[in-house]
Amino acid sequence: MATNKILYVCQEIAPYLPENELSKLSLDLARQMQERGIEVRTFMPRYGCINERRNQLHEVIRLSGMNLIIDDTDHQLIIKVASIQAARMQVYFIDNEEYFRRKAVVADENGVEFADNDDRMVFFARGVLETVKKLRWTPDIIHCHGWMAAALPVLAKKAYREDPFFANAKIVYSVYDNPYQQVFSNKLVDKIKMNGIEADDLALVAKQGAFEDVSKLAIEYSDAVIQGSESINESVLDYAKKSQKLFLPYQDPQNYVSSYNQFYDQILGE
């Protein structure tokens, strides 16, 4: 079965953030799939270090305004959009005053990671799913890039499993060599839990939420896994290979797009 619609959920995308392996691939992959005639929607967090005026971000009023409850607290979901003219593609941004207005990505100027990165991760994933519903758009493939998107697979497969926009979507999770160092507390279970998700579904992060645990949770609820970096956490790599999920090893960055396209079609053919 050929892939027609892909939802890309990305931790970082160039040129909105500095170029690195993840941000460059997130841009290039979406652009090249779109050039192949595939309908694409792309999301990332609206980190406070992104210059709204320079990048011409503007709020999409009809998509904004919903409140998402994270850890028993309401947080307003704001949706913005911008166009990358050179790539002829749009990017949607998940924004919130509390989570994403600080002038940094995941750590402060001293390299200290933000204590609420787990909340931000959950808010981002839920924000994407709720916005896609408002767009009334049904993806064939949901491809998550990086740990900031790691909560989406379990949410989509459990809490949103009967939603017609996601019921038949296949989820791909790409693991990169970009681990966070802090360990999320065991409150992560309560932050992810919602209707359709039980504590047992989150056993992999029940004791703690280290990078390895959160990555394994994402793999557990994905249909396929891609090794996004040449070298990734050994424990996560071993878990992916033993998971019986479809697995695509690291691809040469000069020739990876065709391999990814074939992998998508293989996933849909399962």
N-to-C SSE string, H for helix and E for strand: EHEHEEEEEHHEHEHHEHEH
Q: What percentage of residues falls in helices of 4 or more residues? A: 25-40%
- Report the CATH superfamily: Glycogen Phosphorylase B
Mean of residue pLDDT?
95
Q: What's the structural domain tally? A: 1
The second-level CATH architecture is 3-Layer(aba) Sandwich
Annotation field: number of helices: 9
Q: In one word, what is the shape?
A: globular
At the first level of CATH, the class is Alpha Beta
Radius of gyration: 17 Å
In total, the number of strands is 11
Which class of secondary structure composition applies to the elements? alpha/beta
User: How would a crystallographer describe the biggest sheet?
Assistant: 9 strands, mixed
CATH topology: Rossmann fold
Per DSSP, what share of the residues sits in E-state strands of 2 or more residues?
15-25%
